[in-house]
From TrEMBL:
NCBIfam families: R_switched_Alx. Belongs to the TerC family. It comes from Streptomonospora mangrovi. Keywords: Membrane, Transmembrane, Transmembrane helix. This is TerC family protein.
Length: 343
């Protein structure tokens, strides 16, 4: 797939333009978006991704399926990011009206660094096909970690090394000054929590890229498709936070579903590496099969999670009702001198 430089330029310019418009809207009226507003924005970003995929289907051969598969993988893995984002924003006590700004800046930083990761990954893939062994093994290890530790979610956010370094090197304050990154307190310039939380969100998403970039290279090795799939998934992440943030606790099997997807792609990468580096005749998994497996896994994960959540809620409600029932001694029909009424 040959991508002309001007196509890269136009794509990046459009993506930056959308992010800029988004940022201007937020800066003019800081607020926490309603469910309706978040749903509208997500539908816009999803529509843009679908239009982009349709454009690929009209101008290329077979690349649209690769893009949609990679986009779905990135979007599903982004949902796992939201758990951590909720912990970070809660730990820093970010005012609700400024959370959009924090997420947008963090995501923009992540997009820049992911672009660098993709460039390095593409160069490694082109130089040595054996790198797919490393990618595949890493995804299998990550899948095992998700399964073995999937039920042990952290209840509080622990600051990463970069945030701790900023606190040590620069004077900081725990008080927000609207959306300012730096403020003057008692005649001294200090870093506000707004800057710290932006650093935390951006670096956390970069760490998530260590899983997602190898995963999407298991779908396609075209840098243009890898970048655009990441970009469209990240651009809708902020609105997804406000739309389903309260529903994430109900997706109790999300980590297991992601483990299945990462494990499947890890096996696919290893098979591809064997095919490229040896004379062994091993089957390769087509992208269409990958798309079906990923969509079915996500659908089953969501359905099973919702069923379990409803059963747990019903059980909790039943237990609460039973504990509220009177437990006094049974009446034998005589006087109830304690004031109790026999039923």
């Amino acid at each position: 797939m040959e991508i002309a430089p001007w196509v890269w330029g136009v794509t990046i310019a459009v993506l930056l333009g959308v992010i800029l418009i988004d940022f201007i809207i937020i800066a003019r009226r800081p607020h926490e978006p309603s469910m309706r507003e978040a749903a509208i924005w997500i539908s816009v970003y999803v529509s843009l991704a679908i239009v982009f995929g349709i454009g690929l289907s009209l101008t290329t051969e077979g690349q649209a399926v690769d893009f949609f598969t990679g986009w779905i993988v990135e979007y599903s893995m982004s949902m796992d990011n939201l758990f951590v984002f909720i912990l970070i924003l809660g730990s820093f006590a970010v005012p609700r009206e400024h959370r959009q700004r924090v997420l947008l800046v963090g995501i923009a930083l992540a997009l820049v660094f992911r672009g660098l990761f993709i460039a390095v990954g593409a160069a490694a893939v082109n130089a040595f096909a054996g790198v797919f062994y490393l990618f595949g093994a890493f995804l299998l290890f990550t899948a095992w970690k998700l399964v073995s530790g999937g039920g042990d979610d952290d209840e509080e956010y622990k600051e990463n090394a970069a945030v701790r370094l900023v606190r040590r090197v620069l004077p900081t304050t725990d008080t927000y000054h609207d959306a300012k990154l730096v403020a003057r307190v008692d005649g001294k310039r200090v870093v506000t929590p707004m800057l710290l939380v932006m650093i935390a969100v951006g670096l956390t998403d970069i760490l998530f890229a260590l899983d997602s970039i190898p995963a999407i290279f298991g779908i396609t090795q075209e840098p243009y498709l890898v970048f655009t799939a990441n970009a469209f998934a990240l651009m809708g992440l902020r609105q997804l936070y406000f739309l389903i943030g309260g529903l994430l606790d109900k997706l109790v099997y999300l980590s297991h579903g992601l483990a299945v997807i990462l494990g499947f792609i890890g096996v696919k990468l290893i098979l591809h590496a064997v095919h490229e580096t040896t004379e062994l005749h091993v089957p390769e998994i087509p992208t269409t099969v990958s798309l079906v497996v990923i969509v079915l896994t996500l659908a089953i994960t969501a359905a099973a999670s919702l069923v379990k959540s409803r059963r747990d809620a019903a059980a909790a409600q039943k237990a609460a009702a039973e504990s509220a029932e009177p437990t006094g001694p049974a009446s034998d029909g005589g006087d109830d001198r304690g004031g109790r009424v026999s039923v």
